[in-house]
Amino acid sequence: MRKRCCLFVLLLALLSPVKTEGDTEVKGEPATPSSDEWTEVEEIISDEITEEEGVLVLNTHNFERALTENKFLLVEFYAPWCGHCKALAPEYVEAAGQLNNESSEIKLAKVDVLKHKQLGSEFRIKSFPTLKFFKESNREAPIEYTGKRNAKGIVSWLKRSIGPSTTFLDSVEARMECEYQHRLNRFHDLFCAVRFNVILCGYVRYTHTCISPVESALAGQVESPTHVIPLQFDEPQTDLVIDDEAGLDKAELNKFIKTNQMELVTEFTEENNLKIFNAKADNHILLFINKTTEEHNQLLENFRRAAAVFRGKVLFVSIDVTGDFEHVLGYFAVKKQDVPTIRLINTEKLKKYKFPYNDLTTENIKNFCQDVIDGNIEVYLKSEDIPEDWDKDPVKVLVGKNFDQVAFDETKNVLVEFYAPWCGHCQELAPIWEQLGEKYKDHENIVIAKIDSTLNEVASVPIKGFPTIKYFPADSERKIVNYEVSRDLETFTTFLDNGGVMPHVDDVEVDDEADEDDEADEDDEADEDLVSEIAFAACKEFANEANDLLQLIAPSLISIININNHYY
C-alpha cells in the first residue's frame, strides 16, 4: 500500500519531532530530545516559587499559587533544547527586570514543558516557545501573546493589554493629552478615536467622547447618517465608511485595521513576513530591487506613490534581492539579472501576474494594479524552455509552453505524470513510468508524458499532491480524467486499454491507507492548491517556526515552495 507524497506530511514531520503524553504535540526545531528527556521530573514537591534573573520558575505544584499571587502573569512555556527559546531568554529577562524596576503588577514566569508535561497538555502547547498571558487568576482563558519577541515589544504589549479598553474624553484638554489623539475615529453622536494595538478576545482598544466641543476640535462637521473611521498610522488618512443601518461589522473592522496598520510599502524581511502574511489584503504587489544601486530610492518612491492610491486594495511589498530570499525569487521565477522588476499575486485566487512595462514609473505601476483588479491581464505561469529532444524518448517531456499543444491534441490520448524531483513516491514510480512509455511508444494514439511541476505551471491542472496523474482523452472537449487507482504497470495498462475508464474497484488494489491529507483533491475547477493551503495553515498554527522552515530543510523545501502558491 502507498501514500501520496504531499507537503502536509513533510511539514508535520518537521514540526512534530517530539510528542508528549496525551494529545499534545510539541512542534519546534528539528532537534529531537532523547527519550529520557521526556521522563516527567517532579522534583519540587512544595508550592514555593523561586526566581531566576527576575523570572518566576513555575511547575505543576506552584502554578496555581503564582496565578493567585500575581494579578497579571505572562508565562513562557519552553524546552531547554529549543533554539528559539534560547534566543528569547535574554530579552525575556530584560523585560522582567524593567517591569520589576517599575514595581509593575505584571510578572514574567516560565515553565519547562519537558519536565512538567501536565501543564503543557493543559494549555495545549504545540510549539516552543509559547507565551500565554493570565489576567486576574483566570486559568481557564489565558490570552495568546502576539507581540514582538524582544524586551521592548514584550513590555509594550503587556502594558497595553492591562490598560482600559476605553478612555472617556470629557474635555478638549483631555483629548489633547490622549495618547491616541493622532489616530482618530469619529461618529456624529458618539466620537471614537481608534488605535490598532492588539486584538484581545475580539476587542479593539478605542477612545470615545460625547462632548461636542471635542468632536469639533477633532473633526469638524460630520454629515449624518454616515460614520467615518479614519486611521492614520503615520500614513495618509484612510476612511472606513459605515452604514448607519447595517452598523459596524466586527470582521470588516478587523480587516480594515489590519490592512491600515501596515506601512504604505512594507519591506519583506524574516522578522515581518508573518505580519505581511496576516495582512487582510488579497492582492500583494512585490517590487524586487537591489538596495546597493543608486536607482533604488527613486524606484521605492515611485512604488510608494502608487501604494497611496491602492491602499486597502493592494498590499505593497519591497524585497531586497541582496538578502537571503532565493525562495521568493524562485517562486516568482525572478532572476537577479531581471531586477528591478515587479510581480503581483492574488493570495485568494492564488494567481500571479508579471509586470508588462519596461519602466517602473508610478503611472505604470498604478495601471498594472488596476488592470489586474479589472481582470485585463493574463495570469503569469512559470515554464521552462521546450527541450529540443522533448519527444525523442518513449516518455515525452512536457513543459508549460508545450503542455496544451500535446495534452489537448484531439487525435491523442495522453497520460501525464505531474511530478517533483524530490518526491520519494515519484522516484519510486519513475521506472514503472518508463516501462509504460516503452510499452506504448509505437501506439498510434496513446502518449505517455511527464512534467516537472516545480518548474512549470499549468492553468488547467492545479497540483495538489505528488505524483498527480491525469488522462487527457482524444476529443475536442478538453476533458481531464483523474487517475486515482493503483500505480502499477498492470493497472495503468488496463486503464489505457479501456480508453481511460477506471478498472472496477474489485479488480485492482486501491490505496486504502492514503488519508485525507495525503491524497490529492483533483477538483479541476478548484482555485486553491492544497499544498498552499497546508503551507498557509502551517504558518498560522506554527507561526514561531515558520520563519526558520526555509533554512531547516533546504534545498528540499525550496522546491516545495516553488510549486505551491505561497511566497512566504
Fill in the keyword field for this structure.
4 domains; Glutaredoxin; 19 helices; alpha/beta; five-stranded mixed beta sheet; disordered N terminus; 31% helix; 568 residues; Prot_disulphide_isomerase
What's the quick description here?
This is Protein disulfide-isomerase. The chain is built from 19 helices and 23 strands.
Description:
Pfam families: Thioredoxin, Thioredoxin_6. One of its GO terms (molecular function) is protein disulfide isomerase activity. It is found in: Endoplasmic reticulum lumen. Belongs to the protein disulfide isomerase family. It catalyses: Catalyzes the rearrangement of -S-S- bonds in proteins. By secondary structure, the chain is of the alpha/beta class. The chain has 4 domains: 1-10 and 383-568, Glutaredoxin (3-Layer(aba) Sandwich), CATH 3.40.30; 33-162, Glutaredoxin (3-Layer(aba) Sandwich); 166-260, no CATH class; 265-374, Glutaredoxin. The chain is built from 19 helices and 23 strands. The strands form 6 sheets. A 6-stranded mixed beta sheet has the order 3-4-6-5-7-8, sandwiched between helices. Helix 3 (83-101) packs across helix 5 (151-162) and helix 10 (296-309) packs across helix 12 (362-374). The longest helix is centred in the first third of the chain and has 19 residues, at 83-101. The chain is globular, with a radius of gyration of 28 Å.
